[in-house]
Amino acid sequence: MTLDSAQMVTAQKLLLFWRKPARKCWWDGVELEVADDGKDAAGGSVKVWARRVWTLELNIVRASPVDDECHICRSC
């Protein structure tokens, strides 16, 4: 297998995340309308917040040249 220079640069950048995952976290707010059911609660709008997480992680798995079986989960 041969790599050109662009593939090598990409591989070197990805190796920066070897055993050091990159995480980006942020809060995402959604406004919901609550209906007035006439009992205990009054109608109106409520803001619901969700924490979002994005992770970039690199795992290198060596395939066996003898068989095509997955060495991690053994179910492939």
Mind explaining what this structure looks like?
This protein has 76 residues and is α+β, with helices and mostly antiparallel strands. It has a domain at 25-76. Helices cover 14% and strands 34% of the residues. The chain has 1 helix and 2 strands. It has a two-stranded antiparallel ribbon. The two termini are 24 Å apart. The model has no long low-confidence stretch (mean pLDDT 77).
What is the strand arrangement across the widest sheet?
1-2
Unreliable stretches covering 5 or more consecutive residues: none
Main sheet? Answer: 2 strands, antiparallel
Measured between the Cα atoms of the first and last residue, the distance is 24 Å
Report Rg: 24 Å
| Number of helices in the DSSP assignment | 1
Mean pLDDT: 77
Q: Helix proportion of residues, in percent? A: 10-25%
Outline type: rod-shaped
Total strand segments:
2
Overall SS class = alpha+beta
- As a percent range, the share of strand residues is 25-35%
Which series of helices and strands comes N to C?
Answer: HEE
Give a short synopsis of this structure.
The chain is an alpha+beta fold and 76 residues long. It has one helix and two strands. The chain has a domain at 25-76.
Give the SSE layout:
Blueprint: H1 5-15, E1 22-34, E2 44-56
Antiparallel strand pairs: 1-2
Salient structural properties:
34% strand; 2 strands; alpha+beta; rod-shaped; 1 helix; 14% helix; two-stranded antiparallel sheet; 76 residues
